[in-house]
Design goal:
Elements (H helix, E strand, L loop, with lengths): L4 H8 L4 H16 L4 H15 L2 H10 L4 H18 L5 H17 L5 E5 L6 H10 L8 H7 L4 E8 L8 E8 L26 E9 L10 H15 L5 E4 L6 H10 L13 H11 L5 H9 L6 H20 L2 E2 L2 E2 L2 H8 L3 E6 L6 H7 L3 E6 L4 H11 L6 H13 L3
Parallel strand pairs: 4-5
Antiparallel strand pairs: 1-2, 2-3, 3-4, 5-9, 6-7, 8-9
Helix pairs in contact: 1-6, 2-3, 4-5, 4-6, 5-6, 10-12, 11-13, 13-17
Pfam family, one: MCD_N
Protein name: Malonyl-CoA decarboxylase
GO molecular function: identical protein binding; malonyl-CoA decarboxylase activity
Length: 411
């Protein structure tokens, strides 16, 4: 059983506690005796040697071999899968995963990465891999794939010098005349145009970014890819004035259903909506409690009723604004996509009603999508502000929706 092997390897290769303890004692002794710097540095170096697990050296040797880096990426993917499924567990396995992640972060730094553009003339295996790995908006067929790499579209990926031609992370871009509010217009099922009029292009929309190698989770690739693509687009199309995402909001529906479950059980009372809103919702669902609404949200059935969609429009928009702006995990945005783009220095710019009407979009975020706007001259300061002070830069639209939430909801 391959999934069990890493656990045994971890335990066998863990530093011997007595040796590490003795080395630590010598470091303390050197400091207390105020010995010369060379002796202290030597003692500290010896301690570092004993604290490093033996498999780290093995990984370094493997990384130098042909195909070794690919093997280590796949090994970490197996480790993560084993940890997630509880097939392997324990501090030694988690430590190995962390050590491997840190080593991969060094090996996959920007200096070793190549930016490659995908076109319809790219190798078939590259197109197939990108199609198979698309995690945000699945590719339907080859016509759809041709559209995504054709006119008014760009597709880029990072490859590594030790794994040439292998997509590691992929970014899809739509070239438009304004900031898109709906993914339907971008991935619609129509034949791609043969040529593009560059004079019509003023905006670049990043609408999908997908990691193709699960073993590289947590390795900072997405941020560098976006920065490199921005530079590439500025070079090719200097007239572009705006850079923005059109991003999904995974987890919103689940969060909302959880909030509904936590509401008071009193019939006719709900702290997420105004009295008039809840009265209309209750009349349309035929249930003064939250149970029917939760069921409708979980099954996507609510979009079948135009009246219910109309009633839910305003409350869902303000709830979504609060979810992105106000819900936190350790002080940072709870939503992982929001946290990623805010760390990059973007602005939480616009929430779009029915931006994704696919079953997947309705189920994940009640059909809403969000634009994170990249004002290039402000990204560095925005990123520093978010990372240091955990402050979210947001547009007037988002702040107005947040204010409505705070006024109308009693959470």
């Amino acid at each position: 059983d391959q999934s069990v092997a890493p656990g045994a390897t971890c335990r066998e290769a863990t530093p011997s506690p007595p040796w590490a303890a003795q080395a630590a004692a010598k470091v303390l002794q050197a400091r207390e005796q105020r010995r010369e710097p060379g002796a202290l540095l030597q003692a500290e170096d010896r301690l570092r040697y004993y604290l490093n697990p033996q498999y780290r050296g093995l990984f370094q040797q493997l990384g130098r071999l042909e195909g070794g880096l690919r093997f280590l990426v796949e090994l970490r993917a197996d480790l993560m899968e084993g940890l997630a499924s509880k097939a392997v567990d324990g501090p030694h396995v988690k430590e190995m995963n962390g050590v491997l992640k840190n080593m991969l972060s060094e090996w996959f730094c920007t200096g070793f990465l190549n930016l490659e553009r995908v076109t319809w003339q790219s190798p078939c295996e590259v197109l197939q891999k990108i199609s198979d790995s698309e995690a945000v908006h699945p590719v339907r067929n080859w016509v759809d794939m041709k559209r995504r790499v054709g006119a008014y579209r760009r597709c880029y990926f990072f490859s590594h010098c030790a794994i040439p031609g292998e997509p590691l992370i992929v970014l899809h871009v739509a070239l438009t005349s304004d900031i898109s509010s709906s993914i339907q217009a971008i991935v619609k099922e129509v034949p791609p145009p043969e040529t593009e009029d560059t004079e019509k292009i003023t905006t670049a929309i990043f609408y999908s970014i997908s990691l193709t190698q699960q073993g590289l989770q947590g390795v900072e690739l997405g941020t560098h890819l976006i920065k490199r693509v921005v530079k590439e687009l500025q070079k090719e199309l200097p007239q572009i004035e705006a850079f923005s995402t059109l991003s999904p909001i995974p987890g919103f529906t689940k969060w909302l259903v959880g909030l509904l479950s936590s509401q008071p059980k009193d019939q006719g009372r709900n702290e997420l909506f105004t009295e008039s809103e809840w009265q209309e919702i209750s009349e349309l669902t035929g249930d003064p409690s939250s149970n029917t609404l939760k069921k409708l949200l979980n099954t996507n059935e609510w979009v079948r009723s135009e009246k219910l969609m109309e009633v839910l429009h305003s409350p869902l928009m303000r709830l979504c604004a609060w979810y992105l702006y106000g819900e936190k995990h350790r002080g940072y945005a709870l939503n992982p996509v929001a946290n990623f783009h805010l760390q990059n220095g973007s602005v939480l710019w616009r929430i779009n009603w029915m931006g994704d009407t696919s079953p997947r979009g309705i189920g994940a975020s009640c059909g809403m999508m969000v634009n994170y706007r990249y004002f290039l001259e402000e990204t560095a300061s925005n990123s520093a502000l978010y990372l240091a002070s955990k402050q979210v830069r947001a547009s007037e639209q988002v702040l107005a929706l947040v204010a409505q939430f705070q006024q109308n909801s009693k959470l």
